[in-house]
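Indole-3-glycerol phosphate synthase
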Amino acid sequence: MVADDEIDPAVRSILDAARERTVEADRIAADARSLPDAFAAARADGRVPVIAEVKPTSPTTDGVRETDPVAAAEAMVAGGAAALSVLTEPEHFGGSPETLDRVRAAVDVPVLRKDFVVREAQLDAVAADVVLLIVRFLDETGTDDLADLIDAARERGFQVLVETHSRAELDEALDAGATIVGVNNRDLAELTVDLGTVERVAPAIPEDVTSIAESGIATPDDVTRMCEAGADGLLVGSAIMSGPIEATTERLVGATCPDAETERTH
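Structure:
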């Protein structure tokens, strides 16, 4: 575990906000669209399975993007995105549950809720198809257990993307029952990005677990590199939000991508 005083101050601020955030809402009952099915449909159509992220801002970007989130989401889907990710964290990413609601109502692909959930009650902020749980954040906050949160999310109808950064975190995710695993190329301790992270971690992901490469993916060559490392899909945010959204999405989903499962070693 990385101590709080070794974590980048921007990430520590996100952790502190996650610890403090409360949700007063009824228990969610989600009717989820299948993320693995969406990935399979994209591959059958000759597209790389990309989760395109609607991200107004972040600690690693300059300024706030003024693009309407629904318009951005529709452009991503038009460009071939297999699924979407929507930020709902307000303090550091400019997101909201209301934005996710609007986006999910406007598209027919699975929508991931991108937030920093550390307690069960926080799952009830908004209905989504997939929720994110980050191993390192749960380790650092010392709040609800990962396996318990996965179970609680599934009881509500959510699929769960469990984010990891190392082999040790991958083992923790698999031990907790994760069936969709993200490997984040960004080191949350320092906010540095290394695409080699996926190359080191993804080959150890079992074939029956859906794997997603996250962060630092900006070009078709990056897409190919992540596919060759074994990723079944990719989550792309800044590169798509910063460019012509539909055209950038189309360019990335059209990259060369071998069958990820054949690239994994066991």
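The mean pLDDT is 90.
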